[in-house]
Each structure stands twice: as structure tokens, then as C-alpha cells.
Amino acid sequence: MEQAQQRAGAGGQDAPAPRDGEDGRSGTALELLVHGVGGTTPAEMLDDPRTVRVTGDHIAAVFRRAEDADAESRPEDYRGRPVPEAYVWCNLTSGNGTRALWLLLLPFMVVNLAHWMRPSARGRTRTVRLYGLLVRLAGLTLTVLLVAGACEVALDLVAWQCAGTRACAERHSWLGFLSPVMSDGGWWSTPGRRLALAAAVPAALAGLLWYLSLRTWRAYESQQPMDREDGPGDGQEAAPADGHGVAPEEDRGTVPEEGQVTVPGEDPAHTALGRPGFWYGRRLVARLRAAHTAAALLTVAAAVGAPAARFDRRPGGPALLDTLGWLLMAALAAGAVVVVAVVCRRGRSERHLDRELDRRLVRHLPLAALALFVLALLYGGWSRPGWSSAGRLPGDMTFGGIVLVQGLLVVALAVVAHLLHRSRPDARAAIRGLGGPAVAMLACALGGVMSGGVAQRVSDWLDGTGTSIDGPPVLLTWQASVIPPLLVVVLLLCAALARHTWRLARAERDDIESDHPGEAGDPGRTRRIALTRALATLTDRAPLLVAIVSATTLLLGAGALVGALTTDRAPADAARGTYAVVHGAAETAQALGSWLIGLGFILFVTWGRRAYKDASARRTIGILWDVGTFWPRAAHPFAPPCYAERAVPDLTWRMATWTRATGGRLVISGHSQGSVLAASAAWQLEPSARKRVALLTYGSPLERLYGRWFPAHFGPAALGSLHEEVDCWRNLYRTTDPIGGPMRLPGDPGPDVDRAPLKDPLTYGRTELHPLPAPILGHSDYQADPAFAEERRRLLARLRPDVPGPRQTGRAPSVPAADGGTTGNC
Length: 826
Known about the structure:
The structure is a single chain. Helices cover 53% and strands 5% of the residues. It is built from 26 helices and nine strands. β2 and β3 (61-65) form a beta hairpin.
């Protein structure tokens, strides 16, 4: 087994080279299987309990059957069949208990998705660049919001309000040393020192985010893709880009479409996923990590220093401290300007592997912010006779400012996305190109709910009576109060979707019975199949749901901000004196919102604790990351890491080294999310190697999800180019599958790619071959369908000739398939 690992891990260097005269065209074929979300075992993928790891590690690896471990040394044994291999990558998204901490990063992951949801564009270089800038700024506000929420809990509620109030401090004896009354004027009891001590909590949060980002950066972004030797002249490379397909000024040439730079022989429709440096964002993530870490520390420093500076500006205050306060605030403002400038700066290169790092910036910016944080602690902890804490901590309108900036950024992002979509309309794009702004709005809402929920729960815990302390800022109470109206909208939408699904299920019953002529009808089974088909169509309704929820969230958030700013009172208090129904609704929304946000916080903590201890729950969270962390961290460095920056290079290396070392050709077979990885890896191959690869996808979300939500990278032009560049591509799907679907390629290639929908279940009733009722498979077990083996056999047979089969420029002639559908030549 070790020898097999060495041969395969070295790209087959010890394997026999192609014989003279073969030109590498008749070598052994390889079938590379890639699983989907949730993962599986090598034994299940290869249908053999005896498997060995031939290359890779415990995180991601390629496995073979034990009998195939030395297949390179026995090519004569594989003349009529391929060497099956399985690439297992599930541990990239589900690992040890520390992965439970990734739940804290959910808003960051969502805003990073918005970055890649840019619509396709034509000749809009500056607009494309502006789109990326707005998303990165929205991501920066989320970092500030999360840290500000921690400051609200530790500095305002605990150190300022509760420790400064006798009734609250007596109820929580562990705060006795911070209370001026209970400690009899102890050293830590002054407001500034209480704030300085409490600042350790948000500073620790900033340190944790920095550590998680640094640790995953070293494990994920440091995986280098294959460096092509052909260079830009192979006709498939693009110029450096900032993550959107836009080149910096010094490298920019003519821009035909999507902000891409044309090089001689380049296909302008080629997706950015084929650029050598696309899956290597090490430099950008390091720069953003430094900027966001500095922003977090500066936020904590401002929370400590601003109240002290405000007290020092009172008439008759000490002139020295007043001057130091102004200097500190000026330094913090200058630091904030630098952070924003760093976030706005471009630097992601996709044309080549950008191995450089901005070492001075990455090292000095967080250290400078840390120095200002220490200075703020010293300044805030200085002795100030007569200073006492009362009411809320000054500066509670910080949350209002953050919410206002986030709303303006989302509106501006929507305008930019609309302009891009108009330049190159795509009828299939989600929400008419506004998917990115809608998802960015949801990310901001998630951040607000998480920070506000923690503040509300801590406030209720500290002051059960609601009389000893003032509690969190009024805006957070308003934000909690808009949750019940938002849930009402969601419930109405769900009711409308349920009604539509029920109607569709009734309409499907006649089609199901016509698909199985001559069989005795079973009303119960017909209803189950029809309902499964109808439920599968809900995926196509997701854009409408996201659009309405996002728009409602924006309007309710704006209303909450206006209400908090104009009244400076909680909704129930602000509604006093109005109509009884209005006052009652405000009281109900405020009470119910507080309860709901508390319930959400409890569920969040419970889920995180369970995920920390339970591997199965951790795998469930990993499924969420399978979908949400496919993309590089281009907008937020604290998002969960991009597993594709490891998986795509793994697959690319495996395919390229196999074809080079053995002269063989291969079929890469991907299920569900594995098909997305397979397509991305195929784009990364050199054109000559790509022509030796056949692609088999099943249950694939390539067009149904990725093509609609990420049109700039998986749109019709990109998928159409992939179809033309690989040797052959076949796609299988079912009408009962809620995830997979047809490719709908431009030019109506029809059966060139998509096979007719597979029957599900395979048999309607009991037969001699299936004496027991066949299950409804939906998204799983595509290998159980005879069509899978048939299509795989066709692809492997096509790969055996010495030269690739002829490509069809028009619609391929259809031939009957085993299931009564049609299948075509590639």
C-alpha cells in the first residue's frame, strides 16, 4: 500500500509511461468519483469494503479498492475497464469540536456569498469593481457590529450599569469588587477602570476571530493550485483581478465583457473559475484579516476611551486629560480611515499564483491598533474624581450609525447590481440580478439578531425585575420588536407556497399514472410521488422568498431605526397615548420579540454545545458549510474557510498527473456538490488535458442553484463553454430531486448534455424484479438507476479510441435510451 501511495501521490511518476507511438491516447482510463454534501465513506463510493488511501491525508484523500492499488503497474488488466477512484473531502467541512465555533461566523459567511452573486456584466469594469467594494464595506460593518455587541454586554450592561447600581450589584455578588458601594470605593470601582477591565471580553472575541482566521488561512489558503507551464498564451488565462474578473489599472487592456481583460486567443465567455490564481486568495485574506482585526480593536478602544474623553471635556476638567482625550480620538479616527482604505484596496490576482504577502501591512496594522487599544485602557483607567456611572453608557447610538450605514450600503449595492444586470440581462438570474444585495441584507439582519439577542438575554439575566438598570440601547429593543411582523410575513409566504405546492401535486397525479401505463393504480402511492415532485419545485421558488423577506427586513429595519431616533423610547412607551390597538400591538410586538430573540439565542447556544460534543450534529453543520463555504473569502476574512481552495487543486492535480503519467483519459463523476467541484477542477486543467476528460454529473445544482445565484461564474456562457471544452458531458436528474436539475445550456444542445428525467421510483408497483415497493430516491442513490451505468459505459467507451470523438456543433442526433428517453452524442 505504501508503494501505491507513493506512485499515486507523486502523480504516477513510477507508473509505466505511454509506449512509443501511442502518443498517450490509448492509456488506462480512470473513473474519479466525487461525493456530495454530507460526505460518505470510500467503501460506499467504491462498493467494496476493502479500500486503501493512495494519496492525500486524513482531511481529504483519494481512495481505491485494495485490488486496484497498483493499477499503474498492470495496465494490461484494465484494457476494458477503468480504474475506479474516490475523492473523499467531507472532513474539510466537518472535523473536531472546534468547528462548533464556526456558528459564530454565520453572518460573515452569508455576506461573503453576496460578494460572488454579482450579475454577469458587459463592459462595466468600474461598476464591477464598485460592487466588490460595497460588499467588502458591508462585511467590515458586520465585524464592527459583532464587536460592538460584545462591548454593549461587557462594558455597558455589566461594568457600567449593573456594577454601578447597588441593587444589581447586590444581586450578583461576583461584581462586588467593581461596585463602588459594595467594595467601599475599591481600586477597580471607578468607571474608567471597570470599563478597562471589561474590555477584555470584546478584545478576547477579536483575538478569537483573528486566531480562527489565521489558523484556517494556514490550512486552506496556503494550498497552492497547480502552476501551469503554458502561461497566458494557451488561450485560457485572464489578467489579474480583484475577485470579480476585473484587472488592476496597470494590467488592464481592452474589456470585452464582465470586466475581463482580453489576451490573444482568449474566449471572452470563459468563466473566471478557470484562472490559475482563482483558488489561491492567500494575499487578499491576509490583508483583510489585518484590517478587520484592527477594526475590532479600534472599536473596543473607542468604547473605553470615548466615555472618559466625554467626561474630561466638561467645564473645569483637567486640561491635560482633555488634550490626551482629543489626541486619542484623533488617532482612533485616523486608524479607522486606514482600515477603510485597506479594505477598499484591490489586490486579488487570478492570472497567476500570487505568492506575495503585504507583510508590513499584515503585521503592523493590527499591532498599531493593539497599541491604541492599550493606550485607550490606560487613558480610560486614569483616576478621575467625581466620575460616576448613571444610565446607559454614552455612545449608545453607535448601533444606530452601524444600521444606517448598512442600509445605505445595501441600497447602493442594489443599484449597482441592477446596472450590471441591465448590461447583460439573464432571465434565469435570481431576483433579476439582485440576489447579492438581498443576501447582504439578510447577513446584516443576522448580525443584528445575534448581537441584539445576546444583549437582550444578558440584560434580562442581570435585571430580572427590569427596574434597577436601563438595559440595552433603545434601538436593540426596536429591532427585536420587528421580528414578530417579519415572522408573520414569512408565515404568509409559507402558506402561499404550501397552497401552490398542493395544487401542483394534484396536477402531477395524472402525469404519474400516464408514466406507468398498464399498471394498477394506487392512489396513496400516486399522492406520495406527486407530493415529492411538487415539493422538489420549491427550490425554484427560493428567489421569491428571499426577495420578499429581504425587502421586508429592510423596510422594518428602517422603521425601527426611525422609531428609535425620533422617540428615544421603547416601542411600548413610544405608543402610549395613541390608539388602544396601536399601543396593544406595540406592547405585544415588544414582549413577543424579546421572547423570540431570547429563544433564538438559547437555540443557538444549545446547537453549538451539541455540535461541540456530538459528531453527527457537527456533520449537520458541515452540510451547511458545504454549500456556504464553496467560495473563497473575498469579502470577509472571518468567514468559515473555503474548502474548495483545497478540494479543487486536489482534483486538478490528480487529473493532470494521471493523464501526464499514464497517457490515460478519465471520467470525473460528481454527485450534487461534488459536481460543482468536478466542473471547477475541469476548468482549472490545461486545454489539452481538458479535452481528455469526460464529465458525468447527477443530482447537480450547477445550473439550478449556482447558475441562478452566481450568474457571473456559473451562468449560461460559462456552462456552455465547459460543454465545448471537455470531451463529453452527460447530466442526470430527477423531477423528484429538490437540488439537481437540467443544465439548460445556451444554443439548445438538448440531449448533448441532459438525459431525459430519470424515473423515480424505478417501478410504480410490485413486479417480479421488484417484489417490494421501490423507494422514492429524490436526490440520493443515482447509481441505483440503470441509466447511470449506461451513461458511464457510454462515456468510458468514448474515451477508449486513440483520438477524441467528433464534436457536434448543432443539436446532436438522439438515440433511444434504456428508460424510454433519449440520449445523444457529445
